Amino acid sequence: xxxxxxVTAAVRVLREHKVAFVGHPYEYEEKGGTAVSARELGVDxxxxxxTLIMEDEHRQPLVVLMHGDREVSTKNLARHIxxxxxxxxxxxVANRHSGYVVGGTSPFGTRRVMPVYMQQSIxxxxxxxxxxxxxxxxxAIAPQAVVDILAPELVDAMA
Length: 159
Prior knowledge:
The chain is an alpha/beta fold. It has a single domain, classed as YbaK protein, CATH 3.90.960.10. 26% of the residues lie in helices and 26% in strands. It has helices spanning 9-16, 33-41, 74-81, 91-98, 143-150; strands at residues 22-25, 48-56, 61-67, 86-88, 116-119, 128-134, 137-141, 153-155. Strands 1, 2, 3, 4, 5, 6, 7 and 8 form an eight-stranded mixed sheet that branches. A hairpin with a 2-residue loop joins strand 6 and strand 7. The longest helix has 9 residues, at 33-41. It is globular and about 45 Å long.
């Protein structure tokens, strides 16, 4: 039987680290966000983790992992990491930093290495659904796998 999962940079990283994951292809909707992916997979949007590419005031990029049903408090995050401000990147800038198209951004296998900040409450979930590196493709993994591979700084940055 042929593997139906696309082979993306993210999938390669997960395989390289021997992470158990289940691929979940779904029908991607432009600007649908995590509400659509949660609905398509039949899972709680809180367990769908969005990968956001942001920048500080010096245009240094960073990755923020947040529950799909929550917003990031950029003020709290900036204060936590000791910068003046943080803002989301324009889609084309995010694409350049990550190597992924917005809507298909995975924290695994990014074009450039960036600091990763993960909402600490994500670790309390038994399974998370995170982008597998392509629009319309999430992978189900244990949240500890994110910690093991990316060593993110755990933060409380919920708005």
